[in-house]
Amino acid sequence: MKKKGYSVTVSTVILSAVFIAATLIATYTAGYVIQLHSESIEFEQAKNTMILLATDIEDIVLKPKSAAYVIFNSRAGGPSFDKNVGEITVTIEGETNWVPVKNLQINFMKYRGGSLVGLSNIEYLRGDESKPLIVVGISEPLGYIYTERTKNAAWIVLDYSRVRIVYTGILSLFNITTDSYENFNDVKIIYINLVPGEFYGSGRIYAKVENLGIVHQTNIFNPNPVPILKVSAFGKEESFSFLNLPNFDDSLKTIVTFLLINISISML
Fold first, then answer.
1. pTM of the prediction?
2. Does 31 have pLDDT greater than 90?
């Protein structure tokens, strides 16, 4: 009888241990699934917020001292600012070469996903995989947004490492030497320079973008040779002839204005 009682006690202990282990595993699995779902939702929301941030930047780009805000609801992840990820140089070649920007530091705004966020392929949320250094006209965005996996984490990247070239038409200016009006091609080249502001806070974070000002540089190019825009960054170079601008008149001189727009990003 004692042996039988001993056997029943051992069996009860084993069954209890198995039940407890199963309960713990189920609890852990449920917690893991909930956390995974929460981090995935946070990452998806951050994608949309980053798109809004880029839209706000381009809304204030020609409005010095103006600002805009978006909100990141951060829990497992959070925003960051990557400084000096590369350098950009802009050159306009004509009879002489003009370099309005040389080896300017490139900065990225980024958002790190939680540790459970899975990411197998790069996803382009704004722009495409070509990631050009020169954008022609006003239809395509300057700020590219894409996801990547680096440093064992999923990231959303806001990348402004490119210039926009726009032909705005023919400009007629009075020449006091000849006492007459002279026509010029009017070309604008725009670069948005992201710079770090204040970074502090956690959880519900207000991302503030502010136009710190626009630096104007202007030069005049003769019609022969036709000016060529060259941009280099991240070990590659792209060229674009002004002759390929819609309605560009290669018989006229060209006034080129380079606009360096400094946009600060703060996390408050």
1. 0.87
2. no
